[in-house]
Amino acid sequence: MASKAASTENTAMSANQAPKLNYLNNGHSLKSWLLTTDHKRIAMLYLISVTTFFFIGGFFAMLIRLELLTPQGDLMQADTYNKVFTMHGMTMVFFFLIPVVPAVLGNFLVPLMIGAKDLAFPRINLLSWYLYIIAGTLFLHCMLIGGVDTGWTFYTPYSTVGSNTNVIEAGLAVFIAGFSSIFTGLNFIVTIHRMRAPGLTWDRLPLFIWANYATSLIMILGTPVVAITIVLVAVERLFHLGIFDPALGGDPLLFQHLFWFYSHPAVYIMILPSMGVVSELITCFSRKRIFGYKFIALSSIAIAVIGFLVWAHHMFVAGISLYAAMIFSFLTFFVGVPSAVKVFNWTATLYKSSITYATPMLYAFGFIGLFTIGGLTGLFLATLGIDVHVTDTYFVVAHFHYVMVGGVLMGFLGGMHFWWPKISGRMYPEGWARLSALLVFVGFNLTFFPQFILGYVGMPRRYWQYPPEFQVLNVLSTAGASVLAVGYLLPMIYFLWSLKYGPIASDNPWNAAGLEWKTTSPPPTFNFDETPVVTWEAYNYDEIPDVPLEAPVAR
Amino acid sequence: MVEQQHEVEGDLTVEHEHTTHSQGFYLAIGAALLVLTATTVAAAFVNLGPFNPVIALLIATIKATLVIIFFMHVKGASEKLTGAIVVSGFFFLAILIALSLADYMTRSWR
Q1: Which CATH superfamily is domain A52-543 in?
Q2: What letter does residue A513 receive in the DSSP assignment?
Q3: Which ipTM was obtained for this model?
């Protein structure tokens, strides 16, 4: 390994002499990618893998929507439907939503934004990708030999004594993917503590860094709990030890407590990095210093901590005591506060600013609107009485898709468009990009808004059939899903197209603040030829008066 | 943060200040862990009623503490970050137990 490090060092030195050498053209062999320790290359490996899983999960989503186009169960049997929604949920949650922003944009940007040459542990970073790939392969294998039908939540006692599908293999895949995420979190925490550029104090850090820091805390503190919980499921299934099965003296609610102790904060693993992205986009495209920097930064930490105190709101009707239900209901309202702090500060930033409606900003606006709907319907669900009425209905499905898809995915796509010039060195076609942003927004609302109504009038989730009076809204939802699918395919096509045909991007096409824009596009292997020294506050847009160079239209 | 600019592929050249013990010391800790495991097994065969799990958990806690302090080099670690991570781990474990007990202790149907 020492000789390899030395040879990489040599290439880095020649990078200084030939400025056109960057992380993308620094070695073209497969080996130079598969054995890379460059955080930017690992981010690209992650980008390819999570996109693959996104389209696999999306395929299952389309199967669900096709089945629900008609009231009868005519496309598949009930058992198959159970497997399809389980595979959709597991793929999207564990193999797409959790890694997507931290492992792709976070991996690429954390060292760049803090002026470091790489993450603190480059080899652990590569290991995390390999663990993800091992877990993903195992999960694909599990999918091909028949899949799982427990729902993505592995609820006991069905998962330990009821289901005759491949629960253990799917559990093992999730277990391994968990370690991949722990490694990412560990790397970020150490890097952010130890490797910031001179002058980059905590109160000058970009808000994307704060968001990823808070995310990393949850990854490290929460993931081990779900890992051991899944091991306990496997142990009960294999050896019939009474842990969760009441017939063996166990307690099924113990599983739900342990599972949601991680899986509720996991929602914040997904959404926090996207919130970080939105903070960057809002301030850049409104050409104004972000309003309430400290409040946005600390609200990320507050979400990470309070997020651990609310998990049993998933269990209000499961049989927990009324006393515990009231405590958790009360605490759940608290987690709305830091989220609202962010939304209010973003809107305050927009007030009297000079806004450019470029594609990333369109996604940021989409995020704010959809996340607000998702978050506010979360307050409905935190209210005990209403939750009893809508538990396990499409109201819940619509709520969490507004947060997961309307929030996380909007943030991710906004970030991908914003940093694409830095990642690829090319510009994407602005017209197509704005069209796809519009398609995603319209398609998304058409898919999921009808589901709020469906749930409220009583359509339960996880059934393959439904009474005919629900059909109109279900047809709308399926039609929306088709529009949404086109909206997601378009960016993939034009991003690939732009790799070769897109106009060459300058180092800082948006005139954005932030260290990542002070190096070349794409950046050299070690990011900066000279370590930057930071003497300014974050988002000093009052000192960068120019509009974004690539501003697509008159404002 | 000025003190640490690194040359080689982002390698974190943190000085290893934590107290390193001799090989024999670690073997002794390893032996202690094995003895405690044997004690756990032996204790499981004695009927102490409700105290069986108490004893088992007590021994497990001692073992975990040995591992954290010595094998994971938490004792004598120069980084405040190490301590902070360990403390927050226990803090969040306490949250898990306390809030779960808020359910278990107040179930009317038990």
Answers
A1: Cytochrome c oxidase-like, subunit I domain (1.20.210.10)
A2: -
A3: 0.85
